[in-house]
């Protein structure tokens, strides 16, 4: 069909267009070539929108899955923070028992019970991904250690942890509580 022929000049098209008002046909209200191109453009735009919507849905799904995994992994964080002082007190109790009392038959079962409780807390911590932060003899790591005091030391390199004042803990890969430490410095 060339530009000056009308679609209704084709006998097959004319048959289909019976009953359509002549003024609509003359105004270009029905333009087979232009209408088809416009429909194809709209279809292509709709396809792109569907692809974008699918990609966005997939991104939202991934974010939600990550959020759910993080929630499961770190659900014990609040409880762990609350129970850390209990673990600290058990460790202090064990450290405070003098060697001569450890051999006393009257206290052996009490000491064994405190040690068993401490081991059980460590086991539960392990089951929930809670681990103690290493500190002694290591360089100060501000991401895991909180320097409380500096201690003059000729034996240790400056900036090295020489005393652990309070244990630090991680939950999986996140800091639960920094280790409070004393750090070596050059003697005066």
Overview of the molecule:
The structure is a single chain. The chain has 188 residues and is an alpha+beta fold. The mean pLDDT is 86. Helix content is 53%, strand content 16%. The chain has three domains: 7-68; 76-129; 132-185, Head domain of nucleotide exchange factor GrpE (Nucleotide Exchange Factor Grpe, Chain A, domain 2, Roll).
What keyword list fits this structure?
about 190 residues, three-stranded antiparallel beta sheet, three-stranded mixed beta sheet, 6 helices, 6 strands, about 15% strand
Present the secondary structure layout.
Elements lengths: L10 H6 L5 H5 L5 H42 L3 H20 L2 H4 L2 H23 L2 E3 L12 E8 L8 E6 L2 E3 L2 E4 L1 E7 L3
Parallel strand pairs: 2-6
Antiparallel strand pairs: 1-4, 3-6, 4-5
Helix pairs in contact: 4-6
Brief digest:
The chain is of the alpha+beta class.
Structural class: alpha+beta
Question: What's the number of extended β-strand segments?
Answer: 6
* Overall spatial form: elongated
The tally of structural domains comes to 3
Characterize the largest beta sheet: strand count, sense, and whether it forms a barrel: 3 strands, antiparallel
Please work out how many helical segments DSSP would assign.
6
Distance between the termini: 101 Å
Q: Give me the strand/helix succession.
A: HHHHHHEEEEEE
Instruction: Please state the CA-atom Rg, rounded to the nearest Å.
Output: 38 Å
Spatial order of the strands forming the largest sheet: 1-4-5
What proportion of the residues form beta strands (DSSP E)? 15-25%
Mean pLDDT: 86
Helical amount = 40-55%
Unreliable stretches: none
